[in-house]
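Researcher: Let's walk through a ligand-bound prediction step by step. First, I give you the protein sequence. Second, the SMILES string for magnesium ion. Third, you return the three-dimensional complex as structure tokens. Ready?
Model: Ready.
Researcher: Here are steps one and two:
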Amino acid sequence: MPELMYREALNQALAEEMERDANVYLIGEEVGRYNGAFKVSQGLLDKFGSARIIDAPIAELGFTGLSVGAAMVGLRPVVEMMTWNFAILAMDQIVNNAAKLRHMSGGQLRCPIVFRGPGGAGGRLSSQHSQALEANYAHFPGLKVIAPATPADAKGMLKAAIRDDNPVVMFEGERLYAIKGEVPEGEHVVPLGKADVKREGTDVTIITWSRMYYFCMQAAEELAKEGISVEVLDLRTLRPLDEEAILASVRKTNRAVIVEEGWVLAGVGASVVDIIQSKAFDDLDAPVERVTGLDVNMSYAANLENATQPDAPKIIAAVKKVLYREGA
Amino acid sequence: MASPYSKELLLDMYRKMYLIRRFEERAGQQYTLGKIAGFCHLYIGQEAVAVGPAEALRPDDYMLSAYRDHGQPLARGSDAGMVMAELMGRGTGYSKGKGGSMHIFDIEHHFYGGYGIVGGQIPLAAGMAFASRYRNEDRVTLCYFGDAAANQGSFHETLNMASKWKLPVIYICENNRYGMGTAISRTSAVPEIYKRASAYDMRGEPVDGMDVLTMYEAVKDAAEYCRAGKGPVLLEANTYRFRGHSMADPATYRTKQEVEAERKGDPIPKLRAYIQKQGLAQDDVFESIEEEIKARVDQAVKFADESPEPSLDELWRDTIVEEGEEDVRPRERVLGQKVNWPKYPSGQELKVTWDLEPREQAEAADKKAGLIR
Ligand SMILES: Cc1ncc(C[n+]2csc(CCOP(=O)(O)OP(=O)(O)O)c2C)c(N)n1
Ligand SMILES: [Mg+2]
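Model: Step three, the predicted complex:
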């Protein structure tokens, strides 16, 4: 299997789906002649032309709404957000229009559209450019929300998202784009709504998604050296949550730690805890722990920035806590 | 001078304007009776703005509006009973009672909705027009919005794109001079909305929104312009709502005299006078039309009254489209009538020939700017 960077996997998914379906177009800032702010759309303008790879003005609300309108009448737009921080300006169109069209029309309309771009901390960019915003979107009925961690999932889930008849919000990561992994060629479609056990274990389940996945794997490896067997469940899709997979893993290990880049209050992890406590309470041997970004705005200074985010040592500490091995 | 309009067209316009007027009066009554709840924005006074354009467009042209959205679908041929049922929150409404007064959708008649976020539908319309260009169809999209919506960012962001990409979309600003209780001149640096088109190198014109024939001509011309690929058009229909912003608004921010003066420009008697002056129809014809419409609206109210609320399992439908799920066709669902439904070319059939930013043009521009590519 070829090794690809996350950005190349996305590029492959886009190219394949655009080849397969002329209704698919890509719009966003710098996606065309600049080949993408993060080079996800490298080479696509030459391949598909200027009506299908569209350099948009810096008008997030405008080009997002325009694409929702195009989706209402049968096109399948992919809207690239330069980052999700900027997409806050477009949130009205995603939440008030895309997510509600089927409902408001009583089932007459569908809105097959993908909103995608990097979320989470970019690295030394301070507070306006370093936010994990997926919890906001996971809140809304009418949307699907995905946040793949690996190149293979990035490709397979983007393909599934483009084929989906609902609005799909996709969180990538500035610090994921250069990560490499094996990616199946051609028809590799990962169904939305399915979590994935990325590492099997018996003592504790770590539940995570997106970039935090890598810290979790690192922590799992460290812990293995101490004889602690960690299962890592990559949620991949945040709406709808894969309850079955969450419960199956927790019933097996009886302990859970949830790792989330975003803030603690009303985070996605809070909902995962809710599922576990209400449906697997009797299976638990310890209270569920959460590791989240600190409840502060992100700073520019390197030491402050690092301290704000979850990392392997914080995850290891949480695992030990649910195993009652604190200070061990 | 003989009228350039056929008797059929003129009477059809009259029938439609009268239908909207009557429908809205009865909707107002139903609200007062507590049968319609929430926000209910009546169209009384603005009928010409819906009817002229509806007659000027092709039936397959797309249309959408804000929340003051009962008039336009009625002008396009929507079933009055099903619109009234939607207003009353009944399962037989166009959206099964899930949308209510502010969200009428009738896709069969290419009416793509009423939207409750001020200005929120403006970019959607450009996107629908974008899709038409993308597929090389000569369809036009017509989008209504209010005078206050012209101060939203969505308006400016969209006009810029629509003009730059020459999208076949007609924007009609229904300038009824107020956004809720605020006179447009109090919040707008340029209260003549049509002038704003010039900022985007786009065609913009004021139109007498109290005259259905002027509206008809303006949209006929604009549609031709759009279909010829010349780009979007902004029309400012100067109109007036005779009632408050919504049924909850006593409209104390304007004087009785102002309303009385505006009522003299009522578009319905105006059209009637024109038809009579042309000698095309006399009182008896109008009386029979009015009787026919009154009966139709009575029937609509009766239909809605007798319709059940939506079933509770409707709660779990129409949020996410499940795989293989079909779209709901309201008149088929409610009245059992076969309807035409939009069909789009598959991804393999569709050939995109549009060059949105021609390469040579881009390269010439680069050269001129001293950039080497
Ligand atoms: C974004 C947004 N802000 C505020 C409102 C509340 N609101 C509803 S209608 C309205 C006035 C809009 O006036 P205008 O655009 O002129 O349309 P009209 O009601 O006159 O037809 C306001 C402020 C809203 N629905 N959406
Ligand atoms: Mg107004």
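Researcher: And what stands out?
Model: The mean pLDDT of chain B is 97. The pocket of magnesium ion (ligand 2) is lined by residues B 146-148, 176, 178-179 (CB under 6 Å).
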